[in-house]
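*** Protein under study ***
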Amino acid sequence: MGGFWLHPISFFIAGMVMMVGTQIEYYEMIRITGVRPQVITGIITGITAYTISAGVAARLLDRQFFLVLIPMLSVVMVIELYRNVEKPFDSLAHTYFSILYTVIPFSMIPFSAFYREGLGSILNQEMISFSPGIIIGFFILLWTNDTAAYLVGITFGRRRLWERISPRKSWEGFAGGLIVTAAMGYIISGWLGVVEARDWVILGVIVSVTGTYGDLIESMLKRSIGVKDSGSIMPGHGGFLDRFDSVVISFPFVYLYIAVFG
């Protein structure tokens, strides 16, 4: 939160660290299954995509720089010819899927902050028009939903939401999280700005629904390979993907709403 809020440069770095961390953990989990994705190539492609996105969002680069990614993605297939792995199709599929699953969502984050009006950065700067209000609000809503769904679920939860994937989640917890998160959207709207109060309430609903799906999807992926946590970078909390599993599914929908209606 501090990294995103402090300054545009720290905003860029925070997003980069989160993206690379989730991408590395994805590749490490897949290697458990015996598949050998192109880790270095995938991460370099991810860093390039995120950097170009930040440059375009800050109006330091032209949108044509995105064309650089076309030959980079093609080179991944050429490199696979020289690797002599047993299952090249699986290797390519997982190399590319990490970009779809982690890189693209995080690469949308800069577009929510640069040339937006609202909550200012902690360190004053006049270099560029910038407001981290959307991403700060997004994380507040995400954490509100997780907390409210957990508290309502353990208190009133009876009907399982998706027992095959996550036995602890309940419909009562989901409903409680949705209501409280929508209310929180209204509460923080005046402080964060960027979009209208009505939009923040709608974003609260979007975050609650899509964030729940994000958590379920990561649980499904982990169960399929038999691991409890995606990593151990944060003792007691698991890895980057465990902390940001909701982000990679939820934020694209948040950004889509802002891009169309915000």
About this structure: The chain has two domains: 1-131, 132-262. Residues 52 and 67 are 10 Å apart (CA to CA). The beta strands are 160-162, 166-170. Residues 1-131 form one domain.
